């Protein structure tokens, strides 16, 4: 429910919907690369592709919207900004309140070792660890769900030592991706997918066999 999200954020970040409005957080799993992105690129090869992943996600969510012709469906993407340069929604907070992934933050560590350093939080999924992404929010403004019960996210990094290790790896060594394997995972990105996301965006077209 939108109210779960708004309840944990300052008013400046609130979503402009009634508290009981139904919302879905959309995640992409490791298999998205082979099952969705590559077929999308192959099909769209002759058209203008700006950002393959963003356009692929947008394409699939527009197909979801088509399944609800009688409903208003609002979509917010993780990369969208408001005119104030604030993100349209805080993806990691949304994932946490929906029970999709646990958002580990500095406040989850009792004995904070970082002093005045800025420490960013990170979501970990109980099945995929850090090998996933939060892509969008689907909102159904005409559907109110007052009786929906809030599921708690799975606290899969439960010890103080592991949480410190996770936040250290994510903040200071994120390039090596070690934080993604903080827990035992069921599935991770393929080598091809790792190479794609490790490549600067402007050079990714070449990897997909596209001219820019």
UniProtKB/TrEMBL annotation:
Q: Which UniProt keywords apply?
A: Cobalamin, Cobalt, Cytoplasm, FAD, Flavoprotein, FMN, NADP, Oxidoreductase
Organism of this sequence: Sitta europaea
Q: Name one GO molecular function term.
A: cobalamin binding
Q: Does the keyword Oxidoreductase apply?
A: yes
Q: What is this protein called?
A: Cyanocobalamin reductase / alkylcobalamin dealkylase
Q: Which domain of life does this protein belong to?
A: Eukaryota
Return the similarity comment: Belongs to the MMACHC family.
Signal peptide (from-to): none
């Amino acid at each position: 429910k939108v109210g779960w999200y708004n309840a944990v954020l300052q008013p400046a970040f609130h979503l402009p919907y009634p508290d009981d409005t139904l919302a879905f957080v959309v995640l992409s799993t490791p298999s998205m690369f082979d099952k969705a992105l590559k077929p999308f690129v192959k099909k769209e090869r002759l058209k203008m592709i700006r950002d393959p992943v963003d356009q692929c996600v947008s394409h699939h969510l527009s197909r979801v919207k088509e399944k609800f012709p009688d409903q208003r469906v609002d979509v917010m993407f993780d990369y969208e900004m408001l005119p104030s340069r604030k993100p349209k929604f805080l993806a990691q907070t949304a994932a946490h309140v929906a029970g999709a992934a646990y958002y580990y933050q500095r406040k989850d560590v009792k004995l904070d070792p970082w002093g005045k350093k800025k420490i960013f939080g990170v979501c970990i999924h109980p099945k995929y660890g850090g090998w996933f992404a939060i892509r969008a929010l689907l909102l159904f403004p005409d559907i109110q769900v007052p009786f929906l019960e809030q599921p708690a996210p799975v606290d899969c990094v439960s010890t103080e030592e592991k949480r410190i290790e996770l936040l250290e790896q994510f903040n200071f060594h994120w390039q090596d991706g070690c934080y993604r394997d903080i827990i035992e995972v069921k599935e991770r990105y393929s080598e091809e997918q790792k190479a794609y996301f490790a490549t600067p965006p402007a050079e990714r077209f070449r990897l997909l066999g596209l001219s820019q």
